[in-house]
Structure formats: C-alpha cells, structure tokens
Design brief:
A four-stranded mixed beta sheet has the order 1-2-3-4. It folds into two domains: 185 residues, no CATH class; 86 residues. The protein has 285 residues and is an alpha+beta fold. The chain is elongated, with a radius of gyration of 22 Å. A hairpin with a 5-residue loop joins strand 3 and strand 4. 32% of the residues are buried. Helix 9 packs antiparallel against helix 10. The two termini are 43 Å apart. The chain is built from eleven helices and four strands.
Length: 285
C-alpha cells in the first residue's frame, strides 16, 4: 500500500517531536504525469513526436531521485507546449515552453527552452540531454522545495543536483535559457531566502501535527512559523498568507494559541474579518 504525503509523516514523526533533534533522512518516489501539447507544430513533427509523453514518463520513473524508503508518493506534473520546429537531417530542432508543478501550490515556468531531438526518441539517465535534462532540472527543484517542507533546509542536496545539470549544460550548443534557470535556483538557495525556507518547514510541520491532532507539537511549530513569517519580506509574506491564512488561523485556534490570531491580524489586515471569525469563541465558552 502506498502512502500519501500526509501519511508519510506518521513513519517519521518521532524525529520531529523535539525541535532540536536532527531529522532522520526520508525519501520519496516521484510519480510523474506528462502532458505534451503539439498543436502549433506541423503534422510532420507531430508524427515524429508520437508517444513522447509515455517515453518521458518511463524515463522519469526509472530515475532514482530521492528513493522510496518510506513508500512516499510525490506527484508532479510536467506540461510541455511545443512552439517551433526546424527539421534538420542530423537533428530536428525545437522550441517549447514548460510548466512544472507539484499538483498543489508550486508552479515553475520555463519559456526559453531550445533543444534537438532525433529518432528514435531515447533518453539515458545520467547523460546530459538538452531536452530531458531540463525536465530533470525542474524535477530536482520540485523535490528540493518539497524537502524544505520536510526538513529544515532539507532541499539543499537536491538543489545541488539541479546545479550540476546547469554545469553540464555549458558543454551543449543548447545553452539558451540556462542562465534564467540558474538565476531561479540562486534565488531559492540564496541566504536571503533562508528565512522563507525555514517558514515553509515550520508551517508545514505544524500543519502535519495539527492534522494528527497533536496540538502540543503543532503549537510549537506554528509559533516558530509566525516568527519566521514576521521576518520575511512583505511580498513573500503576502503570497504566503494569501495561500494559507485560513488554514494557519484555524490550526492556531485548535492548538490553543489565540494570541497567534492577533499576530496574523497585525501582519495581514486584509484578511482581518476571516481571522476575527475564526478567533471568536464558540457558544458556551
């Protein structure tokens, strides 16, 4: 039986009960969904690329990624939109746009993607390919962002794997777009973004404990998430609260920490009415 992201935590909760105890290593298995849109390509190119989605899924499923020690399903979706086709006897050249998501709240977009493909379509794990390695890059980033939620700064080793692909790209004629990819990765891993990454860890761990009705631990983690929330930039703070304000407020109340509601009202007055409705005592209290 495979487990969901939430159920995975039950196997590792012992390492999270004390904030200062180092986390045990955890693993997850990527479950990819690939959608390929070739509407803008001529019929000749579409025929050549028939089955590309299945080929790419099979390739992604053979990669070790982060392992599967805890039977942890990590679904991702890769959407590829082909935009240009230039036939060549040696290697057909293409341009495309990609959107990579965790099928929840993370969406990464790449609009500067050029690559060559030749028949038969084959991708070898571990070997740089201007098409497959860009997909790999975004999968590693998605895994890194997921591990930042599981462990404090837990995504570092996965971001390093994405960085290695950037270094390999320097030997390819298809270097267009790698500057932007590396810029995005630098923004994620830069020390200035560390507080945001720690916010994700404390918040999502607190929500896990809330869902387990372990309100003592949820209160501890959510308390630290509020401290981190107060330290990030205003734009990060607002994006975070736009997505999570109700869930955070409700979890704070269940944890018996109504002071947290007042903190949220100060940080996020535009959702004041939501916070006040959640923070109101029920009948008989």
């Amino acid at each position: 039986m495979r487990l969901s992201r939430t159920q995975l935590w039950a196997t590792v909760s012992v390492c999270l009960t004390i904030l200062l105890v180092p986390s045990l290593s955890r693993a997850q298995l990527v479950y990819p969904e690939v959608i390929v849109d070739m509407q803008r390509l001529p019929e000749e190119a579409q025929v050549k690329l028939v089955g590309l989605d299945s080929i790419l899924v099979a390739y992604l499923e053979t990669q070790p990624w982060a392992g599967d020690d805890y039977q942890y399903d990590f679904p991702i979706q890769i959407n590829i939109y082909f935009t240009e086709y230039h036939p060549d006897p040696a290697e057909d050249r293409y341009k495309a746009k990609m959107i990579a998501t965790n099928k929840q709240d993370v969406r990464l977009e790449d609009v500067r993607w050029e690559f060559g493909l030749r028949l038969p379509l084959r991708f070898q794990p571990g070997a740089f390919h201007p098409f497959a390695s860009v997909v790999d890059f975004y999968v590693w980033v998605l895994i890194g962002m997921e591990y930042d939620r599981l462990e404090k700064l837990g995504g570092d080793s996965y971001y390093d794997k994405a960085r290695q692909l950037f270094l390999q790209s320097s030997g390819s004629i298809y270097y267009f777009g790698w500057d932007r990819r590396m810029e995005m990765l630098r923004e994620i891993t830069d020390p200035s973004n560390q507080t945001k990454r720690e916010l994700d860890f404390f918040y999502f761990t607190g929500i896990y404990f809330d869902q387990r009705q372990d309100y003592k631990n949820s209160k501890d983690y959510l308390f630290y998430s509020l401290k981190k929330l107060d330290q990030v930039t205003v734009d990060i703070q607002q994006r975070f609260l736009d997505a999570n304000h109700r869930q955070l407020a409700e979890a704070l109340m269940r944890a018996g920490y109504p002071k947290g509601i007042q903190v949220l009202i100060q940080l996020d007055p535009q959702h004041r009415s939501v916070y006040e409705s959640i923070g109101q005592p029920s009948e008989g209290e």
